[in-house]
Design goal:
49% of the residues lie in helices and 16% in strands. It is an alpha+beta fold. It folds into two domains: 188 residues, 2-Layer Sandwich (BirA Bifunctional Protein, domain 2), CATH 3.30.930.30; 59 residues. α3 packs antiparallel against α4. The longest helix is centred in the last third of the chain and has 56 residues. The protein is elongated, with a radius of gyration of 31 Å.
């Protein structure tokens, strides 16, 4: 049984594009994309506009720009999980906290290739997009630390997973996950268990060398440019000298 985890944050611009695979991503295997599944009850724009309207109607004020009425949870899943499982998680969360889930995505096509073995390492995860506001007022639902801990428990129970332990390590997004896994792969390749891998030392030395070579590259470009103009001036002087010789030759014949 795998461990569960969910990390909630204000929804980011481009969330729907990412979740619905509307743009090409380097860490996605498109041949696995058909294994993804999803549900969508409302767009983020629609849900946000509705929350803003409810807030203004109940308070007579505009919602603050820093408010986050729409939030997104990224959670660990297993290969067996689908959007139906995520919908069940969303329903349980709504029953307990009144937080409505408007979108859910189960992603099975993200991951990375192990640099030591060339084996594909999948990053199975899901996305839940929430309307994090009170239905009547449009005000953000306040969650205490204990509530967030209970949220983790609900996710684990509904997915049939072991609840993960609390940690100070924040959830890794797709790019961070890929980078972390590549670093781990490099450690395996170079068989280094402790300390900074030789590969990273080589990269740092390469970066330092690059900085040292940069001024030389600029000097080389300057010399090449100066040489170009010297050659141009030489050609011009040779042409003028030839014309002068021709004039002098015609004067002597006269």
């Amino acid at each position: 049984m795998g461990k569960s985890s969910i990390h909630v944050r204000p929804v980011k611009a481009g969330s729907e594009q990412h979740n619905e695979r509307e743009k090409k991503l380097g860490y996605v295997r498109e041949d696995l994309t058909p294994q993804n599944s999803s549900f969508k009850l409302a767009s983020i724009a629609q849900a946000r506009a509705d929350a803003v309207a409810r807030y203004q109607a109940s308070t007579g004020q505009r919602m603050q720009a820093k408010a986050a009425p729409i939030r997104e949870g990224v959670l660990l899943i297993e290969e067996r999980h689908t959007a139906q499982d995520l919908r069940r998680v969303g329903q349980a969360i709504e029953e307990r906290f009144g937080i409505r889930t408007i979108q859910g995505y189960a992603h099975k096509d993200e991951g990375h290739y192990d640099q030591a073995t060339s084996e594909w390492k999948p990053n199975y995860h899901g996305h839940l997009v929430f309307d994090w506001t009170e239905k009547a007022t449009g005000k953000s639902i306040r969650m205490k630390r204990d509530d967030m801990a209970e949220l983790q428990t609900i996710v684990a129970k509904e997915l049939g997973l072991e609840r993960g332990q609390s940690s100070s390590i924040r959830h890794l997004n797709s790019i961070q996950f890929k980078r972390q896994q590549e670093e781990q792969s490099l450690k395996t390749v170079y068989k280094l268990a402790n300390g900074l891998p030789d590969a990273f030392k080589a990269i740092e030395e390469g970066e330092a060398m690059k900085k040292q070579l940069e001024p030389l590259k600029t000097q080389k470009q300057s010399l090449e440019e100066a040489n170009f103009w010297l050659q141009a001036n030489k050609d011009h002087l040779e042409k003028e000298n030839k014309e002068l010789e021709q004039k002098q030759s015609r004067g002597i014949r006269r």
